[in-house]
Amino acid sequence: MDSIDPSLNVASVKKIQHGLNAMHDELFQLILDPDPEFIRLLLKNPHVDEDHLLALLKRRDLPAELISQIHRANRQALGHRLLLALVKNPATPGTLTRTLLPHLRLFELLDLCYLPGATPDQKLAAERTILQRLPTTPLGNKITLARRGTTNIVAALLKEGQSQLFEVCLSSPRLKEAALFQFLRGATASAETISMVARHERWKQRPNLQMAILKNTRTPDIWFTLWLPKLPLTVLKQLRLSFKANPSKKRLVETEVKKRGGF
Fold first, then answer.
1. Alpha-carbon distance 37 to 66, whole Å?
2. Mean pLDDT of the chain
3. pTM of the full predicted structure?
4. Are 115 and 97 in contact (CB under 8 A)?
5. Of 127, 191, 203, 256, which shows the fewest CB atoms inside 10 Å?
6. CA separation for the pair 259, 256 (Å, rounded)
7. Which residues have C-beta within 8 Å of that of residue 93, sequence separation ≥ 6?
8. Letter string b/e over residues 151-179, b meaning 16 or more CB atoms within 10 A of that residue's CB
9. Taking the C-alpha atoms of 82, 86, 89 and 94 in order, what is their torsion angle to the nearest 10 degrees?
């Protein structure tokens, strides 16, 4: 046990002695004390248990060193509730947070991404941990992530191009047009997923996405049939240049150009 500083006045010494000898129920009140040094000494009380620590970690005014002390004292038998409380406290040092995050469950990590009061660094670290787990995450959990996930998580799931998962991603309010545009220009876009975008109420009228769809060599011909008549002649001529190496798609564009009297 730490010795009591002899320079302290009588009242302070009595307070510390009382804290070191307080019983279980009284400790819940004592851990509300604003003095971090008193709290540090209070943790030496043998009656302090996990419930006290959980209540203490709900405070948002704890110094980082005190949180590290709690972790050091309990790391050999760190219960899951205490682990989660440590991660959720905004004062927990970043290095400690990154050490603990891999031990959280998938949707605990997701909750941390949206936790009020969590720091941007905490949210980013939780998001990165989720992204690292995606290759081994079951499809059912991925579908839930697509519904509830952050912008970056939804974009990562979209890139997988799995039709059942892709449909859910398209309906996510957090999916950005830029991520979808990038997907349509990538190697994982298939005729099926391209058509999903082309039919989707939210996305089908976006000019940039329409052009990305029409420029993709895997796009089914039906979308050329439906969309080419609505495009300006200048755009059609530019589009024709995109298919120099794809005669069948180039022919579809050239047919529409000729209908307009173009060359």
1. 9
2. 93
3. 0.87
4. no
5. 191
6. 5
7. 64, 67, 68
8. ebbbbbbbbbbbeebbebbbebebbeeeb
9. -170
